[in-house]
């Protein structure tokens, strides 16, 4: 299995931001233009970009199509999501230039619909986000920008996707997102046991190069790099070459 490092850009109100544990009230803004930052990552060797529309993740209505268009000549393959609610949304985002569309809330609430989209658009064009919180030994899956509970358990939802052809899965331990606390390798081991054929992208908590190496050593499909890059704790070329 190949391993991909995905530098991440989260956008809110047109600005590059990071949230703490998905909390919109705990936002850190960075003095970067989203397009310029994406092009910098490309110049440093990135092949992929993970792009998140935080406004749409909470309210729906993906807003970053102009940015996707602007990045068509950057050499980056863009994996992006936020507020995807319909087949028309998926189609529009792909037409705007995305290589993959990330589906979160709807993937939790309506897996049958998302399974149909995997069949229509192909498994290479869809990433399902299984972002989870742990309570009393049980992983549950919040929705709508992680602001609402869904009542869905991780294990039960995985079961519903096993025969769908799904390949690409992004998973965040929400408690570690934006916290620089290290990735939750136990969560990813659980996913690997439940669905060994999936290419799981670890997201949340990466502090530096040792965490990237630990994720790769676990034979995961990739790692999403956010705050550690923005704050200079991690060198992107080193992460790409490890």
UniProtKB/TrEMBL annotation:
Q: Report the gene name.
A: hisA
Catalytic residues at 10 (proton acceptor), 131 (proton donor)
Location within or outside the cell: Cytoplasm
Q: What class of enzyme is it?
A: isomerase
* Gene3D superfamilies with a match to the protein in the record: Aldolase class I (3.20.20.70)
E.C. no: 5.3.1.16
Family membership: Belongs to the HisA/HisF family.
Q: Which InterPro entries match?
A: Aldolase_TIM (IPR013785), His_biosynth (IPR006062), HisA/PriA (IPR023016), Isoase_HisA-like (IPR044524), RibuloseP-bd_barrel (IPR011060)
Q: In which pathway does it act?
A: Amino-acid biosynthesis; L-histidine biosynthesis; L-histidine from 5-phospho-alpha-D-ribose 1-diphosphate: step 4/9
For this protein, the record's CDD domains field holds:
HisA
* HAMAP family, A to Z: HisA
Q: Which reaction does it catalyse?
A: 1-(5-phospho-beta-D-ribosyl)-5-[(5-phospho-beta-D-ribosylamino)methylideneamino]imidazole-4-carboxamide = 5-[(5-phospho-1-deoxy-D-ribulos-1-ylimino)methylamino]-1-(5-phospho-beta-D-ribosyl)imidazole-4-carboxamide
* Lineage top rank: taxon: Bacteria
Name of this protein: 1-(5-phosphoribosyl)-5-[(5-phosphoribosylamino)methylideneamino] imidazole-4-carboxamide isomerase
| A Pfam family assignment | His_biosynth
PANTHER family from the UniProt entry = 1-(5-PHOSPHORIBOSYL)-5-[(5-PHOSPHORIBOSYLAMINO)METHYLIDENEAMINO] IMIDAZOLE-4-CARBOXAMIDE ISOMERASE
The terms under GO molecular function for this entry are: isomerase activity
Q: Which UniProt keywords apply?
A: Amino-acid biosynthesis, Cytoplasm, Histidine biosynthesis, Isomerase
């Amino acid at each position: 299995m190949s391993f991909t490092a995905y530098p991440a850009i989260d956008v809110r109100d047109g600005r590059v931001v990071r949230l703490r544990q998905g909390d919109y009230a705990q936002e850190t803004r960075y003095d970067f233009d989203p397009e310029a930052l994406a092009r910098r990552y490309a110049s440093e060797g990135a092949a992929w970009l993970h792009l998140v529309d935080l406004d749409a993740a909470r309210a729906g209505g993906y807003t970053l199509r102009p940015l996707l268009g602007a990045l068509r000549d950057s050499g980056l393959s863009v994996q992006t999501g936020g507020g995807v609610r319909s087949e028309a949304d998926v189609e529009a985002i792909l037409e705007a230039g995305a290589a993959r569309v990330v589906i979160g809330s709807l993937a939790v609430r309506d897996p049958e619909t998302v399974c149909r989209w995997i069949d229509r658009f192909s498994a290479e064009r869809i990433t399902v986000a299984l972002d989870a919180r742990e309570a009393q030994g049980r992983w549950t899956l919040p929705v709508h920008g992680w602001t609402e509970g869904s009542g869905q358990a991780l294990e039960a939802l995985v079961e519903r996707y096993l025969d769908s052809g799904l390949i690409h899965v992004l998973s965040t331990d929400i408690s570690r997102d934006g916290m620089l606390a290290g990735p939750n390798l136990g969560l990813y081991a659980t996913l690997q046991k439940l669905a060994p054929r999936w290419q799981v992208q670890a997201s949340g908590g990466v502090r530096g190069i040792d965490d990237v190496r630990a994720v790769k050593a676990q034979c995961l499909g990739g790692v999403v790099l956010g705050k550690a890059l923005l704050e200079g704790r991690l060198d992107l070329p080193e992460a790409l070459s490890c």
